[in-house]
Amino acid sequence: MAGVLHRIEHVDRRIIFLIMLVSISVPLFYPMNLPIRVSPEVRLYYEAIEALEAGDVVYLAADYDPGSKPELDPMLKASLEHLLRKDIRIVSATLWPAGVPLLEAGLDTYARDKYSREYGVDYVNLGFKEGKENVMVQLGKSFRAVFPTDAYGTPLEELPLMAEVDRFADVKLLVLISAGYPGTKEWVQQVRNRYNAPMISGCTAVSAPEYYPYVSSNQLSGLLGGLSGAAEYEQLIGEPAWGTTGMSAQSLGHVTIVILILIGNVVYLINHRRKVAA
Amino acid sequence: MSADLWVWVAAIFTLAIMSYLYKDNPVYKVAEYLFVGVASGYYLSTYYQNVMVPNLFIPVGDGVSALFGGQVTPDLWRLFALVLGIMLFTRVMPGPSWPSRWPMGLLVGAYSGLAIIGFAQGDLMAQLQDAMIPAVDGDSLRQFSESQSVGDYVINSLWVIGNISLIVGLLSTLYYFFFSKEHRGVSGHVAKVGIWFLMISFGASYGFTVMARVSLALDRLRFLFQDWMGFTIIS
């Protein structure tokens, strides 16, 4: 018995990797169809977009890169689906250099191809701008001063949508899909109170605990946290996609980790007591 | 299996990076160095196109053109930013490095100003205001008194103690970071309560971090199984 416990305590980490690989792979082919309960923060996110009217304009910030794509792409796609279905017009940009192709792919798939929206009239991609918090603050004063041209080099004066919109006061809502710095925290700190701009956020699971207090204080009007947040939102808009598909595997992965933590602690305690007794 | 060459490239590099889980090896090293090189090239090119060209080369070019009778407004003051930028490089050059302190001071000063204002109005004041709540809020107390079943009593009692636990957690955690008085006796117990609240928050952060990492692994598996191998993933 002591030998077995010792071996468990000093198990090769590669065996744990293998257990995790199996536990998250199997549900991809044999899903457990677990119920997805919508949390209040996700419902608030949904309701903030539901409250918009056709023709309203939102500012969509896609502040992430391929490192966070698995978590945030489902949120971006679901948000675009929801916004375009409601005929909301979109001004979008990113403060992350590697976010440009991700934002462009989302707009092309949903705005251009699925909903046949007209570029420059129904949506605009301003592209990337370096400057982090400075850009956020300046955007509150004038989009045109920060982005003289869009992502494709077209002067903003030539885009009909940009004739109506030039600062945060002209948009109804800020939709922030953000991975880290600069992201939701900086948007809240620099823009929320300064311009009284209502905002909702979809963020990585790592940063979600930091942002929940912003929902409680009404600085954020809604929050999607990690892949589970994306899955809940997909349920609300009736478009189950990768967020929903990944939930069975995600759940089994969590259960496996909890079991491994429990086994590790129990075995450690037993071995520790034996050592003390000896 | 996919017929797309780039899917194969992505799959091979995904497996090369994952091979580190077995042990460090040359295949992993090649993938890692290649990634660093490609990422550096991408960022350099992006910053050149998005920062240097629109903020420096075009305005300065317009300014020079204006000097020779062009019709645009001179914007030569941006040369000052260029000089500051060059001064930053003296830090990594042989010889005196003091010129780098001026632009560094400007950067630190500007960002400190922004961060302090942002934190004060976005975090400190708003969160302080949000923390000023009644110990027991009337609505949850009414809900508790109107509970019909044992389950309702349990759930509603959690709402009743929600504000109390927030206040206790806030004060005890703040007290834990108050080091002017030794944490012994009553103050030690208060600080220990603060530690418990901190541990719970660390646990929540760890749980969310695990969720994030599992999501990343899942997406790579989806890519390998579905996009590369051609299996159907059931939703």
Number of strands of chain A: 6
Count of helix runs of chain B: 7
The best one-word shape of chain A is elongated
Instruction: Describe the global form of chain B.
Output: extended
Task: Report low-confidence residues of chain B grouped into runs of 5 or more.
Answer: none
CATH architectural designation of the largest domain in chain A: 3-Layer(aba) Sandwich
Determine the strand fraction of chain A and express it as a percent band.
5-15%
Q: Tell me the series of helices and strands of chain A, N- to C-terminal.
A: HHHEHEHEHHHEHEHEHH
Q: Can you walk me through this structure?
A:
The complex is a heterodimer of chains A (278) and B (235). By secondary structure, chain A is α/β, with parallel strands linked by helices. Chain A is built from twelve helices and six strands. A six-stranded parallel beta sheet of chain A has the order 3-2-1-4-5-6, with helices on both faces. Chain A is elongated and about 80 Å long. The mean pLDDT of chain A is 94. By secondary structure, chain B is an all-alpha fold. In chain B, helix 1 (5-18) crosses helix 2 and helix 2 (26-67) packs antiparallel against helix 3 (78-88). Chain B is extended. Classes of the chains: A alpha/beta (278), B mainly alpha (235). The interface between A and B is large, with 57 and 44 residues.
Observed structural traits:
heterodimer, A: 278 residues, alpha/beta, Rossmann fold, 2 domains, six-stranded parallel beta sheet, 6 strands, 12% strand, elongated, B: 235 residues, mainly alpha, 7 helices, extended
